[in-house]
Amino acid sequence: MRVDQYGEFEVKILVIGGTGHVGSEVVKELNKRDADVRVLVRKPDVESLPGVETVVGDLLDPVSIDAALQGVDKLYLLNAVTPDELTQGLIAYDLAKKRKLSQVVYHSVFRVEHFKDVPHFASKFAIESAIREFDVPFTIIRPNYFFQNDASFKDILTKMSVYPNPLGLVGISAVDIRDIAEATAITLMSDKHFGKTYNVNGAAILSGPKAASIWSEVLGKEIKYAGDNLDTFEEQMRKHAPSWAAFDIRMMFQGYLERGFVAEDGDAATLTELLGHEPRAYEEFAHETMREWQKPTNSRAAA
């Protein structure tokens, strides 16, 4: 830690995953709190991020990650879902441990210990286990499924009138990435959260039929729920993603249906206290997304 001109301690935070959907929101939240932020990028020509320092590195190159950690006090670790996610995550954590950082905040996933047959959950569970084993102060963020994943369904919803995700009749406690980002920034800006694990869940349960009914109201027409046929779901996923990724996501949804992904008792109250407000609602996200879809293309490009 450094001391600024006013004699106050300055904390420098390295954000890994800061150019993605969740990580970029975390960077925004840290900027709001005047944090000293460094973001790891894979390519030097990445568009500069306002208010932050960028450093080029690759999670499979320990030399570059060690250089990125130089002069850093805290690490936010969100590594992407890839076939080598475990190796990438452990390289970053091991180097943070070597440098004796004052805190690692790890982006994991809700109920991770109950989904050991889902490849990317299993990777996160192994990284969590390593983090808990050693003496680097840590905080673990365990979010549910992201609302914003559904923003990619524009054509399916508006043209085919179908909600495609197999959420089942029981449903899940999906959450807005902005709530995840706020919770993450709060835990990075205070030492009060060392050793804690936060389940980051939405306040309401989102089932397949419920999601379809919300989009029906938002779009002003009937949206049907596609149902729970996971073979068909995986087949459709393979048209837009590598086969390994389609299988991984299929296993995730299969786990939702078999084991549940609904918030635990007390999760909503804990998150509300942490954020200082109730978690955002899926209906709010759906209306915002519909308004974005309605904007002229040139207006979105210029924004």
Structural class, from helix and strand content?
alpha/beta
Strand order of the largest sheet: 5-4-3-6-7-8-10
- Structure annotation, total helices: 12
Which spans have pLDDT < 50 for at least 5 consecutive residues? 3-9, 299-303
Provide structural commentary.
With 303 residues, this protein is α/β, with parallel strands linked by helices. The chain has helices spanning 21-32, 62-68, 85-98, 119-133, 154-158, 177-188, 208-219, 230-237, 243-259, 267-275, 282-294, 297-302; strands at residues 2-3, 9-10, 12-16, 36-41, 53-56, 74-77, 103-107, 138-143, 162-163, 196-200, 224-225. The strands form 3 sheets. The chain has a 7-stranded parallel sheet with strand order 5-4-3-6-7-8-10, sandwiched between helices. Helix 1 packs across helix 6. The longest helix is centred in the last third of the chain and has 17 residues, at 243-259. The two termini are 37 Å apart. Mean pLDDT is 93; it is low at 3-9 and 299-303.
Q: Which helices and strands occur, and which strands form pairs?
A:
Layout (H helix, E strand, L loop, with lengths): L1 E2 L5 E2 L1 E5 L4 H12 L3 E6 L11 E4 L5 H7 L5 E4 L7 H14 L4 E5 L11 H15 L4 E6 L10 H5 L3 E2 L13 H12 L7 E5 L7 H12 L4 E2 L4 H8 L5 H17 L7 H9 L6 H13 L2 H6 L1
Parallel strand pairs: 3-4, 3-6, 4-5, 6-7, 7-8, 8-10, 9-11
Antiparallel strand pairs: 1-2
Quick summary:
With 303 residues, the protein is of the alpha/beta class. The protein has helices at 21-32, 62-68, 85-98, 119-133, 154-158, 177-188, 208-219, 230-237, 243-259, 267-275, 282-294, 297-302; strands at residues 2-3, 9-10, 12-16, 36-41, 53-56, 74-77, 103-107, 138-143, 162-163, 196-200, 224-225.
